[in-house]
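step=encode ok
step=design start
structure_in=
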């Protein structure tokens, strides 16, 4: 039985600190002073005999006990709030929040034109903050709530991280218009050419070069950089070749004088996954955003579109 002296408003404070990751931000959202939020947390800490949150830099990170109880607390608070409305479905307009993404530049270019336009028109109360995160730092960033959602290639994670396939990306060859290889496409002409390579500090073994190795072949690189846009700008002016995910190649073709064609050898598709921490499973806004990103992926990265 719930103790009669427990103030249910304390659980609203708990949920808000959990979602905001900050006592100050929670106070602003609840229109309470920082001492008032701290006092409410203190009362709950006494009841649970647990600190509930520990400070990590500027963030308030939930303890193991807090993470254990939060799914039930979130569900209970949401259920209570639903009794105040005539509708039983989640209403995104009730939330005012910044969603924090871990996207590389290629994914920002693919997802954000459609996502940001949709949010600005239909849900301006939801804003987006995106930054690159290394794969080795991804799990910690999700656990500390520095990021809400990460999209990246399939990587090993612990059981604390949940993920789902968002798309399988194909690789294509991109080169300047009129490039000699367009009239003589072969594995031999491909490996004889100079190549540009887009790589990241924490990149795993390159899928394309692994496929080439199966043919006993390798590429020679005249340029290595970290951004596909820069590499495409270079290869549009010379005879270097660039091999890259097809969806972004098609996007760059609309902006630069380049051609996108199939590779003269088979490269396995690149599985791209969406990641979130298990503590966000019962966060309705996180769930709503994940569904929206999956829907956008179906349109911007169609599974059957390999080249244009």
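sequence_out=
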């Amino acid at each position: 039985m719930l103790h009669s002296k427990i103030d249910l408003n304390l659980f609203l404070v708990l949920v808000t600190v959990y979602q905001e990751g900050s006592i100050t931000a929670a106070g602003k959202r609840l229109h309470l002073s920082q001492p008032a939020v701290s006092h409410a947390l203190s009362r709950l800490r006494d009841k649970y005999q647990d600190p509930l949150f520990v400070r990590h830099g500027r963030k308030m990170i939930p303890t193991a006990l807090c993470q254990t109880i939060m799914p039930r607390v979130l569900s209970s608070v949401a259920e209570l709030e639903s009794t105040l409305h005539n509708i039983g479905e989640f209403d995104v307009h009730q939330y005012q929040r910044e969603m924090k993404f871990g996207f590389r530049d290629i994914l920002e270019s693919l997802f954000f034109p459609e996502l940001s336009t949709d949010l600005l028109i239909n849900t301006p109360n939801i804003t987006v903050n995106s930054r690159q995160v290394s794969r080795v730092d991804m799990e910690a960033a999700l656990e500390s709530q520095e990021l809400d959602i990460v999209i990246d290639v399939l990587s090993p994670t612990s059981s604390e991280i949940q993920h789902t396939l968002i798309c399988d990306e194909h690789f294509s060859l991109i080169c300047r218009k009129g490039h000699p290889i367009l009239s003589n496409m072969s594995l031999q002409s491909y490996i004889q050419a100079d190549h540009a390579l887009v790589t990241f500090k924490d990149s795993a073994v390159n899928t394309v070069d692994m496929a080439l190795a199966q043919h006993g072949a390798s590429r020679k690189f005249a340029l290595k950089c970290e951004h596909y846009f820069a590499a495409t700008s270079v290869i549009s002016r010379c005879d270097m070749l660039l091999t890259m995910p097809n969806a972004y190649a098609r996007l760059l073709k609309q902006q630069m004088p380049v051609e996108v064609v199939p590779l003269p050898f088979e490269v396995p598709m690149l599985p791209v996954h969406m990641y979130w921490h298990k503590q966000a499973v019962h966060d309705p806004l996180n769930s709503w955003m994940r569904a929206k990103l999956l829907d956008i992926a179906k349109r911007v990265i169609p599974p059957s579109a390999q080249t244009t």
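step=design ok
step=annotate ok -> The two ends are 64 Å apart (CA to CA).
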